[in-house]
Design the sequence.
């Protein structure tokens, strides 16, 4: 995607990189949700996020989710449920503006112990740990989460999955400063 921008009376073309990512709302029958903590260089404090990542060429969102969950948690054989949320935001990643679209799917799971055997090298550098959270723990923790309103979203999801995906208009926590 490119955008035209006026600078000092001249127009210039700014190339904006596109990224589509898929994340799993991995929820146990007891309502606990798996989150991963990352210490990202461009965020002022650790951030908790749901497992997932960028779609590869030719990949469907569901196939991306299955691959990413296996890579990030070691869990295989999942059956993604409905898409429950989606969001869109811009970040600066590797010095370039990136227009990010994220889709979140409900993934019913039994409790398990995640492993990091399939992480990319940079993920090991940034990774801070896994944790299963209840909605009450999310609401009272004071930690930074993405999506930012995750406690409210999980509480609503526990009541009833939405009939269509809900747009998250506050995806990033206030501590998020951009990208590297």
Sequence:
């Amino acid at each position: 995607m490119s955008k035209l921008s006026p600078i000092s009376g001249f127009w210039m073309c700014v190339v904006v990189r596109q990224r589509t990512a898929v994340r799993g709302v991995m929820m146990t029958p007891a309502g606990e949700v798996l989150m991963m903590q990352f210490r990202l260089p461009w965020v002022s404090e650790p951030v908790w996020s749901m497992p997932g990542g960028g779609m590869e060429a030719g990949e469907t969102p569901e196939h991306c989710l299955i691959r990413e969950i296996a890579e990030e948690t070691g869990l295989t054989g999942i059956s993604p449920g409905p898409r429950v949320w989606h969001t869109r935001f811009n970040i600066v990643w590797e010095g370039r503006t990136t227009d990010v679209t994220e889709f979140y799917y409900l993934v019913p799971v039994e409790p398990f112990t995640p492993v990091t055997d399939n992480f990319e090298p940079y993920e090991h550098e940034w990774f801070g740990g896994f944790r299963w959270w209840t909605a009450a723990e999310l609401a009272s923790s004071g930690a930074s989460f993405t999506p930012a309103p995750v406690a409210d979203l999980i509480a609503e999801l526990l009541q009833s999955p939405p009939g269509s995906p809900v747009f998250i208009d506050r995806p990033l926590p206030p501590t998020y400063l951009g990208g590297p």
